[in-house]
Write a structure and sequence with these properties.
By secondary structure, this protein is of the alpha/beta class. It has one domain: Rossmann fold, CATH 3.40.50.150. Helices cover 35% and strands 22% of the residues. Strands 3-2-1-4-5-7-6-8 form an eight-stranded mixed sheet, with helices on both faces. β1, α3 and β2 form a beta-alpha-beta unit. The radius of gyration is 20 Å and the shape is globular. 38% of the residues are buried.
Length: 300
């Protein structure tokens, strides 16, 4: 894999820690994708006893998951301590609600950790939910292997991530500016599907859709990415501020995409789910292969 795909994990942690205060106001895409993921649970028969929200951020998915599975224990895990602190503060509430939470049986646990090295016991959860987190892993294999490890037999992994067409306009705008990497790159859906099989997860189903957000100018795009901690964290990124001349070139090249008075910012959102088999002997087909189903949404 090209070095441009590799992220600086320490930089990822710092970026999300620093973005915690501005995250909720800017995380429109993250909330929308979480809502669409939740709709997919309508078609899945599962009664989890424990749920892991891997990459929980400020806890947006927590109320949805707790309402859907009121008897389940929820574990929120994130790499950034500041994100977890905000989630904990939101969940604790004030006044009467704060006192009621002291007696709540299934109050979420908050764990600071890395999805590639989960601090959970083997076969300890029934559902791993992960919204827009896998893309921050350099390769999905370690994270998916960890999800397989902590899932109980018959457990489900449900996730979303970003594909290679994400930020394609911004990437084109930086083309030829210098030799540095300026925009994060993301792994193809089919590569993620292959990684699910290598991790031992079965009957995977994946689909993709393009979501386009619009902005008045290039600076607003960059400001939004920074507000959600999603600015450039690739290895080989430039140090320091970009020069005025280089920035003018970026703006000029981004302007080629302007439509109806707005600049588009495209996200290729990949959705997937897969199961940990009840019988581990059935992880693969007799010839050693595994079937992976891909679906592309109409119109994408």
């Amino acid at each position: 894999m090209s070095e441009s795909f590799y992220t600086d994990k320490h930089a990822v942690k710092l970026a999300f820690d620093r973005a915690a205060g501005s995250y909720d106001a800017a995380a429109v895409l993250q909330r929308e994708v979480a809502d669409r993921m939740a709709e997919r649970l309508d078609y899945i028969k599962l009664v989890p006893g424990r749920i892991l929200d891997a990459g929980s951020g400020t806890g947006y998915a927590s109320p949805m998951l707790r309402a859907r599975y009121p008897e389940a224990q929820l574990v929120e895990l994130d790499l950034a301590p500041a994100m977890l602190a905000l989630s904990r503060d939101k969940g604790s509430g004030r006044g009467v609600r704060k006192w009621l939470n002291l007696f709540e049986r299934h109050k979420p646990f908050h764990v600071c950790g890395d999805i590639e090295r989960l601090p959970l016991a083997d076969e300890s959860v029934d559902l791993v939910w992960s919204n827009l987190t896998l893309q921050w892993c350099n390769t999905p294999d370690a994270a998916l292997a960890e999800c397989h490890r902590v899932l109980r037999p018959g457990g489900l992994l449900m996730f979303s991530t970003l594909g290679p067409d994400t930020l394609k306009e911004l990437r084109a705008a930086f083309e030829g500016v210098d030799r540095h990497s300026h925009v994060n790159r993301f792994i193809d859906m089919h590569d993620v599907g292959d990684a699910l099989g290598r991790a031992g997860l079965t009957t995977p189903v994946m689909d993709m859709e393009l979501i386009t957000m619009t902005y008045p100018d290039a600076r607003s795009v960059m400001r939004d990415l920074k507000a959600i901690g999603a600015h450039n964290v690739t290895e080989g990124r430039p140090e320091g501020m970009m020069g005025k001349r280089a920035w003018r070139k970026v703006v000029e090249q981004y302007e080629r995409f302007r439509h109806a008075g707005e600049l588009p910012c495209t996200y290729e959102v990949v959705y997937g789910h897969a199961w940990k088999p009840e019988n581990r002997a059935n992880v693969r087909l007799p010839d050693g292969s595994q079937v992976v189903e891909f679906r592309r949404r109409p119109g994408t």
